[in-house]
Amino acid sequence: MESLDRGRRATGLGLAALALAGGLTACSGSSGGGDGDTASAGASQAAAGGGTYTIWDPYPQFDDSSDWVKLLTQCGTQAGVTVKRTGYDTTDLTNKALLAAQQGNSPDVLIVDNPVVSTLAEAGVLTSTDETKIDTSAVSPNLLAAGQLGGKTYGIPIGANTLALYYNKEVLKKAGVEADGIKDWASLTAALEKVKAAGKKGITFSAIGTEEGSFQFLPWFWGSGANLTKLDSPQGVAALSLWADWVKKGYAPNSVINNTQTTSWQEFATGDFAFGENGTWQLANAKKAGFDYGIIPIPAKDGGTAPAPTGGEFVTIPAQKDAARYATTQKLVTCLASTDNSLNTTTTLSYIAPTEAVQAKQVEQNPELKVWVEAVKAAKGRTSDNLGTKYPKISEPMWKAMQAALSGSQPPQEALTAAQGTAASATQ
Description:
The protein is an alpha/beta fold. Helices cover 48% and strands 11% of the residues.
């Protein structure tokens, strides 16, 4: 379940459910777990003087015995308070955060999928880091950008994941393909042609008609030099044409139209495919696949690493009626984001750390993460470029254009021209 949950969060599916917020009722949180008798006693003593602070996160798979919840409890003890933590599914969390803000009972700390940050900020739910004195100076600017809107920053990333290409070493060897020689779209397409000629399958990815499909298409779209404000640019058309040609020539299966990132991974795990586009959250499954695999960055059209979208969450501080609470909340957030805790947190969550110092420690511990660190350094937030809440209004027409082009119902140019018209009207 962890890899599936990671994938869901990476795609930011909570955006699609924002309209449901008004119809949901708030739920009370469950108590966070203690770190042994000593920590529990310390937390109880702290509660007497410091009160209780609530934390909502999108990690329902972690219970009170997990390292994650123990860290939350530890941070509360250090701040002199008791932490009351509740884990929600991503979509549920977004809706509950909006409703709680309307009712004036927001949690003290809210950890949310990065594309949701701008939506909550625009709705007035979140405080900026200037207001709460959160130090973000060590965070990589491209990761921090996912939580920025109108020149302000709303929270700090707890970690990031992104996409790359897994490859099957045996399949490439039989096809006479060297993974190191794949540097751009032309060399990748040539490799797929050789793989098909050798009797194997080329590449699988997720092109489903949801945010998940957009998430997987963005490295190719951005890697062409295209911009989300102009979906039907020549560069954007080139990216969609690449995918459509792969399907038409049999380099990619027709199933990509309905593939989620999970079903796409299952196809790659059969051992029949040369390449599978997927994320850091599949590393554990890759080790269980039963064949030798490698990982390369997704290439940009003319070479180099394509900017892939960043997945992962931001630790944010919702607005409170009692501003005096912010001082303690700041201590909680600073504790969670500290260099010492970041290494443990990102390892637990299968993320790449948001700071170069911790990224270096991750690679030192696990050299396999080097390609992912490089991919994250080149990555880009979906709501970056100050798109904010405009992003979902652009993403939906884009994935509909993908579906039309890959199914053959419309040529890529025609599909993207229609998508641009829809997006432009929706974002005026």
